[in-house]
Design brief:
Length: 327
């Protein structure tokens, strides 16, 4: 690694058992306040892949003693190796967009960091839930490809915008680490990100997702959408068509890609969220409280959900708070 992110990882903390040769490596990333959600992804993977040997890589900017203890407990419950890679946000200064959020780019360093341990790395966003076997991904032939991916929801529009053959959602990427290293993808994508961040006229809008799509155009294996199924918990306005989700039982990796997440208080009646909550109750994060509606977007979603559930008293209260938040 020779670019500005070469020293983005300042330390690695090893928890649980030692990594083993047969381990399937899974990477998760986010800021310190997302560790509970990242941990829950790992817990849902375990619940559906009991016999699989896994090494988890958490890429985070800070780690409190409390979360370290929880991750240590999780490592024991998962019977897995857990490696926590501490990230220096300052290393991302030259590639962040106007929102200043470095966490979107943490995943860029993951393949290089694990290169000495594995030739295959599964990256998962923290707003996901595993609901099936990952064995097909562990054994998938990637020899000709840089990564295995799933098409995004609005692929036709996005690929026309970027002038690419296809367009994938980068929330799930199964990296061919060997190809990534051999072709200097790390340096390439950081270079592209720096150019994008410095271009004030028309920067790419999807953080690293657009850049990954441009860089890996024609080099990815597109697999079934059940490995990154975009499941929508959001509610639309009264006169708009509500989102239609396919049966979540048939999906392997469920991606809660909308505004509402399974840790939000107002979506707890959804059956898929109830399954997520049941796993959380048996996890080290069982005492982490649900996120209550705050801010006009959350309040609006909560009000719409209350209306759909016939909870009209809650609906009125939430709509009043929503209107007040916009004043």
């Amino acid at each position: 690694m020779s670019n500005v992110l070469s020293h983005a990882v300042t330390d690695t903390i090893h928890l649980g058992r030692k990594a083993e040769k047969e381990d399937f490596h899974i990477a998760l990333s986010g800021t310190a306040d997302y560790i509970s959600h990242m941990g829950m992804v790992a817990m849902t993977v375990k619940s559906n892949n009991q016999a699989m040997h896994i090494c988890y890589h958490f890429f985070v900017n800070t780690l409190s003693d409390e979360e370290k203890a929880r991750l240590q407990e999780a490592a024991h419950m998962l019977d897995s190796a857990v490696e926590v890679h501490l990230i220096d946000d300052n290393a991302f200064k030259t590639i962040v967009l106007s929102d200043g959020i470095a966490a979107f780019f943490y995943r860029l360093v993951a393949p290089n960091i694990v290169a000495g341990e594995t030739d295959r790395l599964l990256y998962l966003d923290s707003d996901m839930m595993c609901h099936g076997s990952l064995e097909p991904l562990r054994t998938l032939n990637l020899d000709k490809y840089y990564a295995a991916v799933v098409s995004d929801r609005w692929e036709e529009h996005q690929k026309q915008k970027l002038h690419t053959q296809r367009y994938f959602n980068s929330g799930m990427m199964l990296f061919n680490v060997r190809k990534w290293i051999e072709n200097d993808c790390f340096d390439d994508i950081v270079h592209r990100a720096e150019i994008n961040a410095s271009d004030k006229s028309k920067p790419l809008s999807k953080h690293d997702q657009d850049i990954l799509n441009q860089m890996l155009d024609g080099k990815c294996l597109f697999i079934e959408k059940k490995y990154n199924y975009l499941y929508n918990l959001d509610r639309q306005s009264l006169f708009k068509k509500q989102p239609v989700n396919e049966d979540y039982h048939r999906q392997v990796i469920i991606h809660f890609a909308g505004h509402a997440k399974p840790w939000h208080s107002w979506v707890q009646a959804w059956p898929v969220v109830q399954e997520y909550a049941a796993i959380q109750k048996k996890s080290p994060w069982k005492d982490v409280p649900l996120v209550q509606p705050k801010g006009h977007k959350n309040l609006h979603q909560a009000a719409r959900t209350a209306r759909m559930q016939g909870k009209y008293g809650d609906m009125i209260s939430l709509y009043l708070k929503y209107l007040g938040s916009k004043a």
